[in-house]
Design brief:
- The complex is a heterodimer of chains A (326) and B (666).
- In chain A, 32% of the residues lie in helices and 14% in strands.
- Chain A has twelve helices and nine strands.
- Chain A starts with a helix and ends in a 27-residue tail after the last helix.
- A five-stranded parallel sheet of chain B has the order 10-7-6-18-31. In chain B, strands 20-29-23-24-25 form a five-stranded parallel sheet.
- Chain B is globular.
- The chains are: A alpha/beta (326), B alpha/beta (666).
- Chains A and B meet through loops of A and α15, β35 and α17 of B.
C-alpha cells in the first residue's frame, strides 16, 4: 500500500470540521509493537502506517468511548469518527451497524485491502525483537522484515497469522473511502483446529477445555478488546443475579468463557483479537469459530456482511433447524 | 419497608388426579417447615368455592401476603386463584402456582418419587413467591366498532349480528360482491333449500344496514394497534366504474368488445363473462367492475374508437381515470372470515382432471346443476366428442382430504354430504342414470345428515367402498379403476361423468392475513384458535377472532354458528367500552438497554419499539414495551444480551432462586 496516499487521505479526513478524530495504526515504542493512533489534526496523520503488523482491530474503539454525563446546556459532540479497517475489522463495523451499536452517520470507514497479517508471537520467536522499532513490509511472495536497517525476506506461509490463513474476506465489506484496489482473495485454509476438537469424544473435548479454562486469570482482556462486546453494563459484572462469581476457579472461569462465547454466537466476525490478547494463551478463536461454523452450517448465516441485514439473534424462520434441541 | 413474607401453601387433591399419585398430606407437612410458610393445607378441590374460601379466610386470619397453590397448570386456574386472593385484599400477582398435576401426578406412577417431586416443586415456588412484585392492570378505552375480513356467509352473519347489536361494522371483501362460496352452491344439504334463496336476503341486508359499511373489491393493507384500538387501512381497488352512478343495468357487459370471452370465476370457468362484469346476477352491490387485466382499453390503451362500455352507459358511470382509494378507520375487534380454497385436483394427476372434460370437481357440479348456472341447470357434459346427458355417473370422495400424499391428513367434513346431495340432484334430473359413489368412509355426523344419506341410498345410488387408483379413457367412456374393498373385487367401471369430491384447503394467500394480524397456523395449515375446546373462535392475538372455514373445514350450519360465536366474542370489548391490559408484561431497563433492537425483531406481537431518550444529555435509542400489545411471553428476554428486557414476575432474580431451589434439593 502506498503510505503517502494513506497519510494524505487521513490528513484530509482528520482535517474535516465534522470529524472528531481518525483512528489508525502507528509504530509502537520498540520492536514489533504497533500502537493505535488517534489523529486529531493534519500533522499527526504523518505517523500513520499500514503494515503486516497492524493486526489490531480498531473497531473496538468505536464503542469504547464513554458517553459521559453532559453539564447542563452543553451540546453533545456529534462529530464523526473516522476509522481505518482491514477486511475483518470492516466486518465488525458491519455487525455493529446491523445491531445499531453505531449509526452509519457517526462513522467514516476507510478501507485497507489486506494481504494478510503476521502472527506477532511467531514473528518475535523466530526473528527476535530489537530495541529500535522494526518495520514489516509485504513483498510479492511474503514479508520483508526491516530491523536496524537490515532486511530479511520471509515466505508468506512461515509467518501468516492463523486468522489470516482462514480469512475469507480480506477486502473491506463496508467502506466510505478505499485506499487501494482490492487484493486478490486466497483459498482459505481448512479450520483444522476446530475440526480436531469436533472429532474428539465428549470427554476429550471436556478435558481439553477444562485444561484451557483452568488457565484463565479472568482479566477480561478478551471481553475488553472485542469490538462486539460493548454492553454498557455487562451481565458478567452484575451482582443481582450473579451469573458468574468473582472467584477464579475452573467452574466460574468456564461459566465466564461459555457465556461470552454464546453471546458472540452469530455475531463474532473472527478477527481473532480475543486470542491475540489473552495472556493465558487460551485458544479462544477455536471456541468462537466453532460456534460460527455451527451457525454457518445450520442456518447459512454469516455475521458482519450486511450492515442493514437482520441480526442473527433477531431472525426467526418457521423452518429453522431445531434438531439439536433436546 | 419490605414486609416479611407470610406464605400460605395450598395443596390440591384434584379428586384423585393428584392425590392418587402424590401423598398430598406429606407435601402439606413438608411445606409447613419451609421458610416463611405460615399455613399449609390440603383440600379435595382447591378451585371449588369452599377451596377458595379456605384461602380467603386464611389471608384474613393469618395475614398471609403470598399464596402458593400446588395444583394444576397455571393455564387452567391461575386466573381463578388470582381473582380469589384479590377478593381477599391481596394483589392478584402475589400468587404462584406449583404445577403438581400436569408436571407431576399425571406423568409419574411411583407415589414416593412423585411425592418427592411435588415437594421440590413446592420448595421452588416458595423460593420464588417471596420475590414477586405487586402489579396493577390498567384499563384502556375500546373503539365500539368491528372489522370483518371476508364477506362469505361467515363474514356476513358476523357483520349482521354485530351491526344489529348497534355497533359500527366494516365488512371488507376482496371480490366485487359479497356472498362467497355459498352463493355458488345450488342447494344445501340436508334440507335441500336453495342456497341463493337463503343467502341473498342476508347479502342485501348487509348492503342496506345502517351500521354496516360495506367495502367490496377492497383489501386490508395494514393493521396496527391492539384489542380495543386497531388502526386499519383498507385499499379500495379501482373498479373503473363510478359506484354512485352505476345502475347495474348491464348494457356495458353486453356491448363490451370482448363480451363473454373470459372464464367466469363464479361459474368455475364453465361460463363466460365480459371484461366489464357483474360476478353473478344477484351480486351485492349490483355494480359493475372492469377487470383491469382483460379490458382492452386498460391493457392496450385503445378499444376501437371509443370504449364501447363508455359509449353505451346511460349513467355515464365508466371512469378509466379512477385510482385505488384508501380508507382508514379504527375498530375495537376484528373477525377473520377469509374462507377456503377448494382442493386443486391437478395435484392428483391419476384422476385426469386436466385431461378429460368430463372429470369435474364438486364446485363445478354445483354450477352445472344450478338453474342459474352455465347450462341453465341441465346436466350436460362434453365427453371429449359431443355434449351428452350422462348415463353413468361416478363420484369419488376424499379427493385431497385424508390424503398424506398431498399433505392433507384432515377430513374436509363437507364432501360426504355434498356428494350425497349432488347424487340426489342428479337422480332428480336424470332418473335413469346409474350413480355410484366411491368412498373410504361415510361421515354423516350432523343433524339430519344420516337420515339424508339413508334417503340417497334408497334412491338407488350405489356406495362402493374403494379409493379409485386411476381414471383413463376407453372409446367415449371414462374408466374408473378401483377395488371394491368390501368384496375384494377389482373393478373397471365405464362411466360418462366423474365428479371429484374435492376437499377444502387453507387459502393460498392466507400468509398475508397471518402477517397482518400475527396469526398462527395449526398442523393442517388452517388458522389456529386459542384453545380447541374452550376458546374456539379466539386467536393468540387478543381482539382477533376466527369464523368459518379459515379456521378449518366446516359446513354451513357450523360456519354460521361459529360466526355468531365470533360476533358475540368480538362484541365483549365493544359493549364493555374498555379492555383490561394484563400487568404481567415485559419491562425495559433503560439504563442498561444498548438499543440493538433484537427484541423488536423477535417480538411475535410487535409490542416493542425503539424510542429516543435523553441519557445525561445524549440522545440514545432504547427499547420500549407497548403494554397493551405485550403478552408477557418472554421471547424478548433471551434475545437481549445485556439482560435489559424481562417479563415482570419472570425476571432473572425471581426465577433463578426458583431454579436453584430445584437443584439444591436432595
Amino acid at each position: 500500500m502506498d503510505l503517502d496516499k494513506l497519510r494524505e487521505t487521513a490528513a484530509e479526513v482528520a482535517g474535516r470540521d465534522d470529524v472528531k478524530y481518525l483512528i489508525g495504526w502507528k509504530k509502537g515504542s520498540y520492536g514489533y509493537r504497533i500502537a493505535p493512533a488517534f489523529v486529531e489534526d493534519v500533522e499527526a496523520a504523518a505517523e500513520l502506517i499500514f503494515s503486516p503488523l497492524c493486526t489490531a482491530n480498531l473497531a473496538t474503539y468505536l464503542t469504547l468511548v464513554e458517553k459521559l454525563p453532559l453539564p447542563r446546556g452543553q451540546e453533545p459532540d456529534d462529530r464523526k469518527v473516522a476509522l481505518m479497517v482491514k477486511g475483518c475489522d470492516s466486518r465488525a463495523v458491519a455487525q455493529l451497524l446491523a445491531e445499531k451499536g453505531i449509526h452509519r452517520d457517526e462513522v467514516i470507514v476507510i478501507g485497507c485491502p489486506c494481504p494478510g497479517m503476521v502472527d506477532p508471537d511467531l514473528l518475535a520467536e523466530k526473528y527476535p525483537e530489537t530495541e529500535e522499532p522494526a518495520e514489516l513490509k509485504w513483498s510479492d511472495d511474503g514479508f520483508v522484515i526491516v530491523r536496524d536497517g537490515e532486511e530479511t525476506a520471509v515466505p508468506r506461509d512461515e509467518l501468516l497469522a492463523e486468522k489470516c490463513r482462514l480469512c475469507r474476506y480480506p477486502n473491506p465489506v463496508v467502506s466510505d473511502i478505499m485506499l487501494d484496489d482490492p487484493v486478490e482473495t486466497w483459498e482459505p485454509a481448512e479450520d483444522e483446529g476446530v475440526t480436531e476438537i469436533e472429532e474428539k469424544e465428549v470427554d476429550g473435548r471436556w478435558a481439553y477445555w477444562q485444561e484451557q479454562f483452568s488457565n484463565c486469570i479472568r482479566c477480561y482482556s478478551c471481553r475488553n478488546v472485542c469490538p462486539l462486546c460493548y454492553c454498557q453494563d455487562c451481565i458478567l459484572d452484575r451482582l443481582n443475579p450473579t451469573w458468574v462469581n468473582r472467584s477464579v476457579n475452573f467452574s466460574e472461569n468456564t461459566a465466564f468463557n461459555i457465556a461470552r462465547a454464546f453471546h458472540l454466537a452469530g455475531r463474532c466476525i473472527e478477527c481473532g483479537e480475543c486470542e491475540r490478547v489473552c495472556p493465558a494463551n487460551i485458544p479462544l478463536g477455536k471456541l468462537n469459530r466453532k460456534l460460527a461454523r455451527e451457525i454457518r452450517d445450520k442456518y447459512g448465516f454469516e455475521p458482519g456482511l450486511e450492515p442493514e441485514g437482520e441480526p442473527f439473534q433477531a431472525s426467526y424462520k418457521p423452518d429453522d433447524p431445531e434438531d439439536f434441541i433436546l | 419497608m419490605i414486609e416479611k413474607p407470610k406464605i400460605g401453601v395450598y395443596v390440591c387433591h384434584c379428586g384423585i388426579n393428584i392425590a392418587s399419585t402424590v401423598d398430598v398430606e406429606t407435601v402439606e407437612e413438608y411445606a409447613l417447615k419451609l421458610p416463611n410458610v405460615e399455613v399449609a393445607r390440603t383440600y379435595s378441590y382447591m378451585c371449588s368455592d369452599p377451596g377458595q374460601a379456605l384461602i380467603k379466610e386464611d389471608i384474613k386470619e393469618h395475614g398471609l401476603n403470598r399464596i402458593i397453590v400446588a395444583s394444576c397448570s397455571p393455564r387452567m386456574h391461575e386466573t381463578t386463584f388470582r381473582k380469589a386472593i384479590q377478593e381477599a385484599g391481596l394483589n392478584p400477582y402475589f400468587l404462584e402456582m406449583a404445577n403438581i398435576r400436569e408436571q407431576c401426578s399425571w406423568v409419574h406412577q411411583d407415589m414416593e418419587e412423585a411425592t418427592a417431586k411435588a415437594k421440590k416443586l413446592v420448595t421452588a415456588s416458595v423460593a420464588k413467591v417471596r420475590l414477586l412484585e405487586a402489579l396493577e392492570s390498567t384499563e384502556v378505552d375500546a373503539e365500539p366498532a368491528a372489522l370483518i375480513i371476508g364477506a362469505g356467509i361467515a363474514g356476513i352473519q358476523a357483520a349482521l349480528d354485530i351491526a344489529d347489536a348497534g355497533f359500527k361494522t366494516y365488512l371488507v371483501e376482496k371480490t366485487p360482491s359479497v356472498g362467497g362460496r355459498m352463493a355458488q352452491l345450488d342447494k344445501t344439504f340436508p334440507t335441500l333449500d336453495c342456497s341463493a334463496c337463503i343467502l341473498t336476503p342476508k347479502m342485501v341486508d348487509c348492503a342496506s344496514h345502517p351500521n354496516i359499511e360495506l367495502l367490496t373489491y377492497s383489501e386490508v393493507e395494514e393493521i396496527n394497534g391492539f384489542i380495543g384500538n386497531f388502526d386499519v387501512r383498507v385499499r379500495k381497488k379501482a373498479r373503473y366504474v363510478d359506484f354512485e352512478k352505476c345502475t347495474g343495468c348491464g348494457d356495458c357487459a353486453k356491448e363490451c368488445r370482448v363480451a363473454d370471452r373470459f372464464p367466469s370465476e363464479f361459474d368455475e370457468g364453465m361460463g363466460k363473462r365480459s371484461a366489464i362484469y357483474l360476478p353473478f346476477p344477484q351480486a351485492v352491490p349490483a355494480k359493475y367492475t372492469i377487470d383491469p387485466e382483460q379490458c382492452l382499453y386498460l391493457t392496450r390503451g385503445k378499444c376501437g374508437k371509443e370504449p364501447k362500455c363508455q359509449e353505451v352507459c346511460g349513467a355515464d358511470a365508466i371512469n378509466f381515470e379512477q385510482e385505488d382509494e384508501y380508507v382508514e378507520f379504527k375498530v375495537g375487534a376484528i373477525i377473520v372470515a377469509t374462507g377456503f380454497d377448494p382442493f386443486d385436483p391437478s395435484r392428483k394427476p391419476e384422476y385426469g382432471y386436466d385431461d378429460y372434460p368430463n372429470v369435474i370437481t364438486g364446485m363445478e357440479m354445483e354450477r352445472l346443476v344450478s338453474a342459474s348456472g352455465p347450462t341453465g341447470g341441465k346436466v350436460l357434459i362434453n365427453n371429449g366428442k359431443e355434449e351428452i346427458e350422462p348415463k353413468e355417473v361416478a363420484f369419488i370422495k376424499c379427493v385431497g382430504s385424508r390424503d398424506e400424499s398431498v399433505g392433507n391428513e384432515y377430513c374436509s367434513r363437507v364432501c360426504c354430504m355434498y356428494t350425497a346431495k349432488q347424487a340426489h340432484l342428479i337422480r332428480e334430473k336424470l332418473p335413469d342414470a346409474n350413480i355410484r359413489i366411491y368412498y373410504m368412509d361415510v361421515r354423516a355426523f350432523g343433524k339430519g345428515y344420516e337420515e339424508f344419506y339413508d334417503r340417497v341410498r334408497r334412491e338407488n345410488v350405489r356406495y362402493i367402498r374403494g379409493n379409485p387408483s386411476e381414471i383413463f379413457k376407453r372409446g367415449n367412456k371414462l374408466v374408473v379403476k378401483a377395488e371394491d374393498t368390501l368384496t375384494s373385487t377389482p373393478l373397471e367401471d365405464e362411466v360418462d361423468l366423474v365428479v371429484l369430491g374435492v376437499g377444502l384447503e387453507p387459502r393460498a394467500e392466507m400468509r398475508q392475513v397471518m402477517d397482518l394480524l400475527r396469526l398462527s397456523q395449526s398442523g393442517d395449515r388452517f388458522f389456529l384458535e386459542a384453545h380447541p375446546k374452550l376458546r374456539p373462535v379466539d386467536t393468540a392475538t387478543e381482539g382477533v377472532f376466527l369464523a368459518g372455514c379459515c379456521q378449518g373445514p366446516k359446513d354451513i350450519p357450523d360456519t354460521v354458528a361459529q360466526a355468531k360465536g365470533a360476533a358475540s366474542s368480538a362484541m365483549i370489548p365493544l359493549a364493555r367500552g374498555s379492555v383490561t391490559i394484563d400487568a404481567q408484561v415485559a419491562e425495559v431497563n433503560e439504563a442498561t438497554c444498548r438499543g440493538c433492537g433484537f427484541c423488536v425483531e423477535i417480538c411475535p406481537y410487535s409490542a416493542i419499539e425503539m424510542v429516543t431518550v435523553n441519557r445525561f444529555g445524549h440522545e440514545i435509542e432504547v427499547a420500549k414495551v407497548n403494554e397493551a400489545l405485550c403478552k408477557g411471553c418472554g421471547s424478548c428476554s433471551p434475545a437481549c444480551l445485556s439482560d435489559s428486557i424481562q417479563p415482570k414476575s419472570f425476571r432473572d432474580r425471581q426465577i433463578l432462586p426458583q431454579i436453584a431451589a430445584l437443584g439444591a434439593m436432595k
